[in-house]
Amino acid sequence: MADAAGARILVIDDEPQIRRFLAISLRAQGHDVLEAATGREGLQTLATRGADLVVLDLGLPDLDGIEVLQDLRSWSSVPVIVLSVRDAEAQKVAALDAGANDYVTKPFGVQELSARLRALLRLRPEAERNAVFDDGHLRIDVALRQVKLDGQPVTLSRKEWALLVHLLGHAGRVVTQPQLLRELWGPTHVEDTHYLRILVAKLRAKLGEDAAAPRYLHTEPGVGLRFSGGQ
């Protein structure tokens, strides 16, 4: 298991001085730091280069941070720490409901931020830590957002990718339907189980799975789904 050192951290903040301060502090702790000044740039960087954790400012020039969170959560389970001058309880609740893992109010102390960052990195899902699953038939590279089946690229939608990575991150364990619905569609859709059935069917088809005898995506009737690791 990887520890919290040497992680790749993406900082999305439009204030150059904040990005510079964080980059210096985090690199001094042994982390690799990526920077983005806008929400769209941040999403593009995450999609193309990957990250173990995202530090996100809510007050961005092009997209509101909540919009960035919602977009990000539609295809990634990467931990997110929100940085914001917005200290109202309602703002914090909105960010957490949108998928943030933690919320730090500006101005902040670097020691406090570092402690929260280390706590989240220690809890990284196995898929995010290990980045690659490969059993000789199916290869999933989380950092590169690539899936190959017998060496051939498989194109997944954002939702299909998000489902696959979430299950892979909990490989061998059952993830309940409400958990998956909340993760992929938000807290208002925990009863919409047909969304999940349709998505699983599409993902199985792309992975060449037989629903009656699946190799990777196993259904626990009435409970949820489990990624088997191809065993």
**Helical content band:** 40-55%
CATH homologous superfamily assignment of the largest domain: Response regulator
Q: Could you state the order of secondary-structure elements as H and E?
A: EHEHEHEHEHHEEEEHEHHEE
Regions with little confidence, pLDDT below 50 for 5+ residues: 126-130
Percentage of β-strand residues: 15-25%
Q: How many helical stretches? A: 9
- Radius of gyration computed on alpha carbons: 18 Å
CATH topology of the largest domain: Rossmann fold
* Level-2 CATH architecture of the largest domain: 3-Layer(aba) Sandwich
User: Quick one: how many beta strands?
Assistant: 12
The number of distinct structural domains comes to: 2
Secondary structure elements and pairings:
Elements lengths: L7 E5 L3 H13 L3 E5 L2 H11 L3 E5 L7 H9 L6 E5 L4 H9 L4 E4 L4 H13 L3 H5 L1 E3 L3 E4 L4 E4 L2 E2 L4 H12 L5 E2 H9 L7 H14 L10 E4 L3 E4 L4
Parallel strand pairs: 1-2, 1-3, 3-4, 4-5
Antiparallel strand pairs: 6-7, 7-8, 8-9, 10-12, 11-12
Helix pairs in contact: 2-3, 7-9
Structural description of this entry:
The chain is of the alpha/beta class. It has 2 domains: 8-124, Rossmann fold (3-Layer(aba) Sandwich), CATH 3.40.50.2300; 128-227, Arc Repressor Mutant, subunit A (Orthogonal Bundle), CATH 1.10.10. It is 41% helix and 20% strand. It contains 9 helices and 12 strands. The protein has helices at 16-28, 39-49, 65-73, 89-97, 110-122, 126-130, 158-169, 177-185, 193-206, and strands at 8-12, 32-36, 53-57, 80-84, 102-105, 132-134, 138-141, 146-149, 152-153, 175-176, 217-220, 224-227. The strands form 3 sheets. The chain has a 5-stranded parallel β-sheet with strand order 2-1-3-4-5, with helices on both faces. A 4-stranded antiparallel β-sheet has the order 6-7-8-9, with no helix packed on it. The longest helix has 14 residues, at 193-206. The protein is globular.
